[in-house]
Amino acid sequence: MGYVLGKEGFSDLVSALLKDYRIFAPVLKKGAGRFTDVDCVIYDEISDASEIELEKKSDYASKEFLLPLSETLLYFTEEEVKEADLCDKPVLIFGRSCDLNGLKRLDQIYLENGLAKDPFYKRRRDLIKTVLIGCGKSFDNCFCVSMDSNKYEEGYAFSVDLIDGEIHSNVLDKNFEGFFKAASGITESDVTPRFVTENDVKVEIPDEIPGRIITDELWDEYTTRCINCGRCNFVCPTCTCYTMQDVFYSDNGRVGERRRVAASCMVDGYTDVAGGGQYRRKNGERMRFKVLHKISDFKKRFGYQMCVGCGRCDDICPEYISFSNIINKVNDAVKKEVNS
Q: pTM of the prediction?
């Protein structure tokens, strides 16, 4: 079932949904970018439909409800351990196809990557229903078509497409039809969410990447160019790495909390081991690890690519390093080896 709503009708819809759901969506933050006169689109909990940004590409991914930058998992005292409370109100997350495909990758890592499911991730994931934001055009640096993540056709509750000032929605979850029908000025219509069909940026990933690629000179460039800030990881919809921190409230270390904190394979300290050892000391080695994990290792395990081609890593890199260019350089290096 499809519906078309005006601005007032969409406001009615969101207001009704907020009674039953917490809603996380892209929000434009004025002056919150890297400079005081630069805006930033981030995911945040909204309280009104007017806050939702449907036209601009978000600078950060939709994963932050599932994977907060810092999350207290449990509290401990000398006598007991208590799991941190979590609001159990259901959650709606608005995301484009790349973001919702990104959630699939997160599920694969946290729920299907071993004998046990991550309970802290699962309790958040069980609260979520997704809302698809249609994409009428490709944004700068996007290469989602090459990564086969430009479409998300199943699994969302409903879609929203802003077209000529009106919201076009395709409703897949019948539980939401009542919310739509109660909105003012609504009309029924056949609605198909818009999907990007072509990007200016294209990548080609080799089917097989030989082990010798790890010593290729192509990685040396990033030892000097990359400043290991980790921004590419923190904005990525599919990066899942974290570290654990214990915060002690008492001198004896028996009262405090345990936190899961976002970490990055690109930053100092991530591969430190006991005795002062450090794997992947050079930035080029770290870049190699990240790239091959995204376009090779994950696929070997799960059968599809980890990267969703959103291009946010390219957008945020202060050194203008392009992940899509690196993929194509790897492809060229593999072709050269095969033909030599």
A: 0.93
